[in-house]
Structures are given as C-alpha cells and as structure tokens.
Amino acid sequence: MSPLKIGHAARQYPEVRNIIGCVEGASYHLCRDYFSLLRRFGPMLGGSPSSDRFFDHQFQFRDFGLNRVDCLHLFNGINYSNSPWVTTYETLIPRFRHVLKNHASDTEQVRSCRKTLRAVSLLASEPCKALIALSDSARQIQGRFLEHFPEFKGTIEAKTVVLHPPQKPLVDTSEDLAFPHENNGRVTFMLVGHHFFRKGGMEVIDALAEIRQKGSKSLRLIIVSRLQPDSYASSSNEEDVKRVRSLIDKNGDWIEHHEVLTPDGVLEKMRTCDVGLLPSYAETYGYSVLEFQACGRPVITTDIRAFPEVNSNERGWLIPVNKREIWGEAYFRSDRDREALSASIRNGLLNAFEDILANTDQIRRKGERALDHILSGHSPERFGQSLEALYRRI
Fold it and tell me: For residue 47, how many other CB atoms are within 10 A of its CB?
C-alpha cells in the first residue's frame, strides 16, 4: 500500500496528541486555508478578535481543494471544501460560540442559526468520512445536540466512533515503579494545569492545609501552573490569584511551585510524585490523568465528563459530585452551584487524602493498575491502526 498523506490545520497540543505522527509510515502536512488567513490578517483589517465571528473561524476550514492530501484530519473543525476529511472533537461540533451558549437550553436559537445548520449539514455530507469522539461523554453530548437536527442525526451518528487519546507508557514495567514515600515517608501530591482554579487547585491547597493543621505533616505538594483565574467554571479572579500566591509563599516548606516547565520537565516531575491530582470543576478530557497513569501514578479526580472512563476507585480515586445524568457535566452555572461543587470537591479530597495517608500501601497497588490501564486502553499502536483503517476506507 502507498504511504498516506494526511493534512492537518494546526500544530497545537490537541493535533500533536491525536493526529500528527499517529499512523506509522504516513506523512503529515500543515494545510493553510482561507479561515487561517482571516484569523491572521482580520485584526489588521479592523476585525475584533473578541467577536463571535472571529472565535468561530478557528473551527472552520476551507482550502478550495488546493492542499493535495489523501485525507484532511481536523480537531474540532468543519471542512467547507470537497476534500475527504475526518474530525476529532472533544465536546461537541460545530464548536461555534452560538452553539456552546445555546445547545443545552434553546432549541429554536440553535435551529434558526443558518451557519450552524450549514455546518451540521457538512458533517452529514459525503466528504466527511468520520467523526472521532475523544470520549463516550463527548459522543453523548453530540447525540443530545443532534436532536436539534433530526434530519441529520442518524447519518452523523452512523459515522461516529470513540477513540480515546493514545498514551505511551513512561516507565518500562510495574516492576520499575519507585514511589518517593517508600523512601522518605512523605507522600507527594502533584497538580498540573495553568487553569489552576478550574482544576480544583484552591480546594487542593485548602484540604491539604487542613490535614496538616490536624497534625499530619508527612505530605508535600508540587504545583505546575501559571495560576490563571477562570471565569468559566470556578468564577475566580485576580484576588483569588493573590490569595493563592500568598499561601504558596507562606508554605514553601511543603509546597513546591513552578510557573511553567517543559513537557519533559513535567513528566520528570510526575515521576517524583506519589499521587496525581485533577479534581476539576470542568474538563473536556484531562490529558494529565493519562500522563500520571503512564508514570504508574494513581490519580484523584472528580467523576465528571470523561474521568470515569479513564479513572476509577480501583486504579485511583473518584470524587462524586452533583452532575448531569447523561454526559456528566458538573453544575457550576450559578453561585450556589459553584459553592456546592467546591464543597463536594474539598470534602472528597479530604477523604481521599486521609485514606491515602492512613494506608500508603494502596498507592503502589493502584499505581500498578493505572499503568496496566494505559497499556491496555491507550496503546499508541492500536490507536494508529484504528486511524489508518479510517483513512484507508477513504
């Protein structure tokens, strides 16, 4: 068989994680298009980068067929040209701002938008060969959204598959696992993510500080984050950032903070911790969970969105929170919902931390199961074979 030529629209982390280089022997080509030019030159011509139109351009692609590739593979994108294409999505697609605002609450608003109708019709069209959901949660959200468009729902769902991201193991075997607490008696927890507050970072610090006040000093925390505020889920602001920075400065004896590390630096730090943390308010997937598990580290997460598909109480700790029954999104739209969610996360963390410190032997057991999960469920080889099969069908 001849080598495949795969086109992609960007070289950002999602493309690197799910598209570029995933099929052995294929060549990958960055494809420029009309909408990428609009994003680049639109502000120079008076366009507002904050406008809905500018936001939507990042999820639209039109190259008029000028990029000669066997298949175009987009991430969260819609192709407006006639070239054969597939798209991987993390929540729902089209990911237009109008859709994100109204898909769960206002059927008429969504149905009446001509741009949205056009995008959905393209998903159902013959050139679109497959939709790849990152998780079953994303597939469920897309299915609920498509109820607004019953004339296209069956066609689109028939070519939708779920492919969890690939993850290579970062240790050779479970026999190579070394946990710091087994040597120094201190359990090291680690949180990675610039959106610190959305990822439950404030609750992590508060819960660990409370445990230390109760007399348990045999713990430490590594944070890799720019500590960015989050107006989406946690409703945090610059005052919250100042509070966290002050807490970190005052507790430098047990909190280690890095604003940023290289990707390799992050993975090396993961190997120096005992337990990973991602108790998020909202998360489309949570790649760092896979990376912790690939290091043989069990992870504490909430039970929202895709987390129950990659984490469990057998190989980590799941914090139950109040959430939507169908696709697992937590409730955080109102102040009351956010307060209740924060309290659930904090209480869940307290229980998990106390359980871990009282029985540290389970860290190794769960870490070995976490590594086994990566080997069985996120094999890069099997992921590449599944992608190649999709491409070859085209």
Answer: 15
In this predicted model, what pLDDT tens digit does every residue of 278-316 receive, in sequence order?
999 999 999 999 999 999 999 999 999 999 999 999 999
Q: How far is CA 299 from the centre of its chain?
A: 15
- Structure confidence at residue 39 (pLDDT): 84
**CB burial string 50-67: b at 16+ within 10 A, e below:** eeeebbbbbbbbebeeeb
User: Is the distance from CB of 219 to CB of 190 less than 8 angstroms?
Assistant: no
Q: Which has the higher per-residue pLDDT, 225 or 324?
A: 225
Segment among 68-82, 266-280, 325-339 with least mean pLDDT = 325-339
Domains belonging to the chain, first-starting first, are 5-166+379-393 (3.40.50), 174-377 (3.40.50.2000)
Give which of 146, 153, 95, 156 is closest to 125, Cα–Cα.
Answer: 156
Tokens of 236: 């945090």
Q: What is the pLDDT of residue 176?
A: 77
Dihedral of alpha carbons 154, 14, 293, 234, sign: negative
276 in the Ramachandran plot: left (φ > 0), alpha (ψ -120 to 50) or beta? Answer: beta
Is the pLDDT at 51 greater than 90? The verdict is no
348 closest CA partner among 264, 280, 253, 292: 280
The angle, 0 to 180 degrees and rounded to 10, between the axes of the packed helices 150-158 and 136-146 is 150
Is the peptide bond prior to 94 cis by the omega test (within 30 degrees of 0)? yes
**Nearest Cα residue to 165 out of 267, 297, 266, 16:** 16
Q: Which of 97, 108, 7, 11 is nearest to 54 (CA)?
A: 97
Q: Which amino acid is at 359?
A: N
Phi, psi torsion values for 160, nearest 5 degrees? -100, 135
